[in-house]
Every structure is written in structure tokens, then in C-alpha cells.
Amino acid sequence: MPSFTPNDSVTKLYGVSEARAKLLANLEICTVDDLVRHYPRGYENRGMTKKVCELSPGEVASCILEISSPLSSTRISSKKGRAMTVQKVTAHDETGSVHITFFNRDFLKTTLVTGRKFRFYGMVGGSFLSPQMLSPAYEPYYTNATLDNLVPIYPLTKGITCKMLSMLVKQALEAYKNVESLPTDIIKKYDLMGLYDALCAIHFPTDDAKMKEARKRLAFEELLLFQLRLRALKNRNKNGRSFKFFRPDMTPFFDSLDYTLTGAQKNAVENIIYDMTRSDVQTEPQILREYTQPMRRLVQGDVGSGKTIVAAAAIYACVKNRAQASLMVPTEILAEQHYASLLPLMEKHRIATALLTGSTKASEKKKILSALADGKIDLIIGTHALIEDSVVFKTPGLAITDEQHRFGVKQRDKLSGKTAISDDGKNVVPHMLVMSATPIPRTLALILYGDLDISIIDELPPGRQKVDTFAVGESMRERIYKFIEKLVCEGRQCYIVCPLAQNMNEELSEEMYESGLKSAAEYCEKLKSEIFPKLRIDFVHGKMKPAEKDKIMRAFSDGKTDILVSTTVIEVGVNVPNAALMVIENAERFGLSQLHQLRGRVGRGVHKSYCVLMSPIIRGKLADGANPAEKRFNIMCENESGFKISEYDLEMRGPGDFFGKRQHGELAFKIADLAADMKLIEETKKLADEINAKKQKNI
Ligand code: ADP
Ligand code: MG
Prior knowledge:
By secondary structure, the protein is α/β, with parallel strands linked by helices. The chain is 35% helix and 19% strand. Strands 14-15-13-16-19-12-20 form a 7-stranded parallel beta sheet, with helices on both faces. A 6-stranded parallel beta sheet has the order 21-26-25-22-24-23, with helices on both faces.
């Protein structure tokens, strides 16, 4: 029996010192269970060995070779002037030999000894006649020895190698021999692999089929637990209580707008008012407060569908009930924009409005906080500053989070956790409204936001101009530059976006990020000095300090910059109606939803707007090809609706992350794949509903 359990700290494992435990913590591995749930992100197929004569430069290959001569080691100095050593060794099989090079591995002298056999795995370089390998993986090879054919590749951090993780996982698995995390009847009903077998097969698969079966079992479990957690959250929140509002007369509000709401907007407003009043038809404010279940609603609408005004209607309804509302957004500039656009409307209705962000002056902040606590402010708009403990409401009626995908569930809940003590000494929480501009297919939304009710705005305000979209190759570059110049001369502004990654599904390493950033910066310099010397060009990227980013974005939104070059558009939801052109470089590297989000930055004003997808894969005219990038371009050129596009996106993506893990921390699954596992998602949703219903009955 092992001397540790799944819940023990990894330091219980042989080979994990305090220092190593710290490194593992960078991978969010703290317990033995975290370790075995750190699944491989892929496998190296080392089992398919080749003979030397079959190797071709540029491929990744595995071969079994015997060391021909002793390892040599020479000292050199690297480009950066650091001293380092190079090890060279030759190894052969009966068909030829391979030159192998390592760096700073002096210790290999005692391992790679003449006459011994190893299985080497790595990229083949050199030439067909004289193949080489640079720092290949090596495993001692004995006759009759069994080496794993599929070798796991793990997401890593500095100081932790795949070999190390494999070794630790092998130990850790000992603790799972008699552990099962799912009830037997579920395992039977859904024909799932047992936990121990699944963990063994995912980390050390003997073949592809076993690995897939293991993946299915683990994804099933992950999705089921996720949905059960959401239901628990929903149940808990149902038990909280909020102020019950009377149904206000919304006519003065609607009459004060210079447009009529779309059907979808009206519907969302009605959903919200229903939630907050629970269809209670009363016309007078009550003297004594009554309480109701808190609203927990998500408004999902494409970029530009007019979510802000829906939020404003909810605020109006709240304030007419003499309760306070808050609106939280992810960036300062967005907070300022919302404040500027909502203030005139709010003033018309005598709604006292304040702005609170990280750069609000201390004296000003103090005033705002005390007015808020006294109930003299009806609406507060701001950034994360709103969730600080010093922010206290007198009558918290409604908490709105805009662009919710930029916040974690925790932050969102913290805002709606701002409570007041009611007449009878119990807590009152505000109604919660979250707005998201990431259109996802309805079915998926219902599952992933299982703790929320959903209103969908699937209609754009009338009169919106279509953003004309073109996909072009390098041969059109000159013409595109001329087009940019022409638009700028007409007074418009332009975005140029450069990707950083090599590939849309690839994890970005620090080095790749740096080099990508460098090339984007160089490109920007080139635009400034060679292509558009007369235009005002600026550059913004994700690693800048927020204040610096805000400054550059503000200059652009104030019209002080003509062209904004960026790595990806950083400021979600920023409204620059004068921007009429979005150029996306290397558009083949972006996913559909991302392209759609980027395109949504233009076409927000009265000006005819355009989106240009530049890609070297396009030769001449855009073909109808089978190439997935070409397919994406065609979909972009032919579709405007974010919901439609997100359906295509989900359909088209193979294994990969529909949402982009970085952006959607809360929806980052370890093994489930939201695009590929739709069937599992639906199965587990049904099951979670059944389990939840049973639980509710028993209470
Ligand atoms: P988003 O859903 O992306 O947050 P906004 O709320 O910023 O969109 O709205 C985009 C623009 O559309 C704003 O300028 C807003 O005034 C305008 N708008 C919203 N609703 C309507 C409508 N029903 N008719 C006309 N214009 C509208
Ligand atoms: Mg918005």
C-alpha cells in the first residue's frame, strides 16, 4: 500500500522536495490528485521506429541506435557570451549512422557509452546522406525491454520535465488502485472505464483505442462535476433574497430614447423586469420592502446588438424602486465610455450617477463612497474598484457586469455579493445581470451557464450597415495600403491586427510570444517609416501596463491616432465609431469567433466600414478549398451574425478550444473539449439534471 492518498500533498511522493513542490505549484499541482489530473496534452509516437536509411531531414522520428564512439565535449561561448558546452556523439544501426548533438549535458558521458543501445526521438536535421539529431530524447534500450510506445507530453513549467512528471505520476497512480470517483450504476449505464484504468491509460497508453476510451471517461466525469457544481450554485442562490420590485412604468424611459428598441431588446428587458418583480403587478412603490429570489440572468448578444441600453432599462427599473445599481466593466476606458454615454440619459431621469475607477482621486473616491453608503448615489459605474470592500451600498438592488467573459465567476459573484442588512436583520443581495458579447450557440450556452437564466439578443438595431469583408493574398498588399491611406485621408481610422502565435491551436511559449511581439513591433516600425510616413500610427499589445494601454486606446478613441496596430484587440467593447477599417494580418492564424470579434470593432458608426483578412495562403482569388483557413474566410465573407458564425466555429474546430483557454478561465476544462464533446456535454447535462432533481426532493 502506498503511504499517501489522493488528497495528500505532492511532497509525500518520492522525489518531490519543497523546492520542486513550488515548481509544481506553478502548474497548479499541489496534491497527488492534482498531479494525476494533470493530463498529457498529446503523445509522442516513439513506437514507430525507423531505420537510419529511412530518415528524412525535417521529420520527427524515433530510431534505435547503438553508440559508435565516445561522447566528445567542447567548451564554446554562446551568442550572448555565456560559456556553454557542446556534446557530440555518433550512433548507428545496420543501415547508417546519425550525428547527435547536445548542449550542456556533460553528464551524458557516463550514459551514452560506446556499444550501448538507446531509442532516440527527435527532429531529424542534416541531410539525407548525413542525418543529424539535435538534443533528442533518449531511453536505454535492451533486448526484450518494453519501452512505452506513446510517450505523454505534458504542459510544463520551468524546471519540470515530461520525464519527471511521468515518473511522479507512475508513483501517484499507486494510490488509485481502489479508488473510484463515480457511482457504479453510472459507470455501468454509460459504459465507462474505471478510474484507475482510465488514469493509467491516459498517462501511459498502450494503444490509441484505450487512450480514447480513457479520455471519454475522464471528460465525462469532468463535465458532470462541472454541471453539478453549477446547479449547486444555482440552488444556493435561489435561497438568497433580493428586494422585490414593483413593476415600474417604463414609458418615460422608452420615450426618452431617440430610437425604438428592437424586439429582442424589448424581450430581454421584459425578462429582466419579470425576474425582479416576479410578475407582480403593482403600480405604487411599497412602503415596506418585500423580498424575492434574486435574479441571475445573462444577456447574450452580438457586438453592437445594443446591450447597454438593456442594462440602462434595468437600472431605471431598479432606481424607480429606490434601490441602487452598479455597473462593472473590465477596463477604465470602457467605464468612462459607459459613464459618458449613460450620464445624459440618467440625468434626464434624475438618476444620480457616479464613476469609480482605479484612477479616481482619493478625495473624490471618499466622497463617492460615503454618498453611496448614504444612498445618495443611485448608479455607480466602474471597474474592479467596485468590488473592493470599502464599497458599500445602502440599498443594493442590481449588480450588472458587462463583458462578463473578461471576469471570472468569483469577481462577478463578489459584486453581486455586496449586501445590505434588511429590516429583519437578514442579508439582502442585489439582483444580478451579466452581459456577454461572446456569442456561443444556444445549446452550449444553456449548458455552460447552467447557473444563469439567459436572454439572447439575436437582432441588430435597424439600419446597421454590413461590414464588407474581403479575404486577400500578398498580391493585394499594395492596394490595401492605398486603401488605408485613402480612408485615413477621408478622416477615418484604421485597426491593423497581427497575431502572435504560429498556429491558432498552439500553446504560446514565452519565447514564441517574445519573438511574435518583436515581429509585430517591427512591422509597426516599418509602417511608420516606410509605408505611411505621414500618418499617425501607434502600437498596443497585451503585455503593456494597463495605464499605458489605456492611454494609447484613449488617444485612438479621441481621434489622435490614425492607425492602431495591435497584437489582438485588447479592449473588448471599446467604441470608436470613426474606425472604419479592420485589417487582420495572417488571418489564417485566427479562429472564426476571434475574427468575428475583431470585425465587430468597426461598423459602429455612420461610416461605411470594411474588414480585410490578409493571408499568404491566398494565391490570387480566394478559393472554395478544403483548407480550413479558406473555409473560415469564406464563412466570414458570407456571414454577419455572431451566432451563426459561432455555430460554424464549433462545427469546424477539431480538438481544440472553442473559447480560447486564456480568455475563459472559468470554462477551461482539463480534458473535455467543448467542440468535440457535444454528445458528452448533452449526456452529462441530462444526468446532472436528474441527480439535482433527486437531491432537491430529498431536502
Ligand atoms: P453592445 O451590445 O455591443 O454593447 P451597444 O450597447 O454599445 O452594443 O450599442 C451599440 C450602438 O447601438 C450604440 O451606439 C447604441 O446607441 C445603438 N443602439 C442600441 N440599440 C439601438 C436601437 N434599438 N436602435 C438604434 N440604435 C441602437
Ligand atoms: Mg457593450
